[in-house]
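Field reference: sequence -> structure
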Amino acid sequence: MDRDRHTVTVDAQPVAVSAVEFRLLLALLDADGRVLSRDQLLDATYGMDASDVLDRTIDVHVGRLRDKLGDPAVSPRFIATVRGAGYRTAPAYGQARRPQPDGGSGGT
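Structure field:
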């Protein structure tokens, strides 16, 4: 993930993501493995405009993002569901493939 260029790559291949999906992925990465609730992710992706958006909208965006990243929910590489709580980065990704602080890519 290159924050400055707003690009995402998986296995050196570019992945086209929407602005909301980019902000969602960025929020999850910035949480550094902590679980974020749907409300927290709504705030991170929609900001002040989140009041009119249903919290289940996050589930739709996560699903689309998983499809684009090739990240099945049953064995996630990038985004893990924490039932009843929200979402976090998958352990394998969060520990081994964090984006570089200089904006370089770390795999996604």
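Note: The two ends are 5 Å apart (CA to CA).
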